[in-house]
Design brief:
The chain is mostly beta strands.
Length: 201
């Protein structure tokens, strides 16, 4: 479980294809604190550390993960938002993030907000999935590339978030432009509520 508060950006240093899996080797400042089998969020995707060598570590993404996320688009040199799993005795500064990316979305608009920036994202409209809680609500939470954010002006298949300068400088929002594909995880609380309503009908 994660909080959506990105610790830093890791750099992809190697990519290896193994049948339908991809091994990503990354470098970040806390590599020496990691352990094999530890969970780390990468652009919002929970992946298991499978190897540690010198100042790099390796994680494996399987086909299901690659199909639902933007990890398959990564190239050597790309920056990835990383967060280690949440300590249960710590503060929940963001919101409950599982690290189970639901789908991807595309940035369709960027607008200056006198210092901050509004980013608007569009995702595939699926009414059946929406009935199961896969949607955004005004002032609700959403995770974009592992970053816990507050939703502004949602529609059936778009939402906007406001990014302050600190977040843009310290996450890969610095690399997002119109047309960029990002990972999104909808709020787990909304999914549970939708599921309960299903049983009440």
């Amino acid at each position: 479980m994660f909080s959506g508060i990105v610790e830093e950006m890791a750099t992809v240093v190697a990519i290896k294809h193994d049948r339908e899996n991809i091994d990503f080797t990354l470098k970040c400042s806390f590599t020496n604190e990691l352990k094999i089998d530890q969970s780390v969020s990468h652009n919002g995707v929970c992946l298991t550390v499978v190897n540690i060598k010198d100042d790099t570590y390796t994680v494996t993404a399987m086909k299901e993960t690659l199909d639902r996320s933007n990890l398959g688009l990564l190239k050597v040199g790309d920056h990835v938002n990383v967060e280690r799993s949440m300590l249960m005795n710590g503060r929940l500064d963001g919101h409950i993030v599982q690290g189970h990316v639901d789908e991807t979305a595309k940035c369709i608009k960027m607008e200056d907000a006198d210092g901050s920036t509004y980013f608007t994202f569009e995702y595939k409209l699926d009414k059946e999935m929406a009935r199961r809680g896969y949607f955004t609500v005004d002032k609700g939470s959403v995770t974009v590339n592992g970053v816990s954010l507050t939703v502004i002006s949602p529609t059936d298949n778009t939402f906007t978030v406001a990014i302050i300068p600190y977040t843009r400088q310290n996450t890969n929002f610095a690399d997002i432009q119109v047309g960029t594909t990002v990972n999104i995880e909808f709020d787990i609380l909304g999914k549970y509520i939708a599921r309960l309503r299903h049983f009440e009908e």
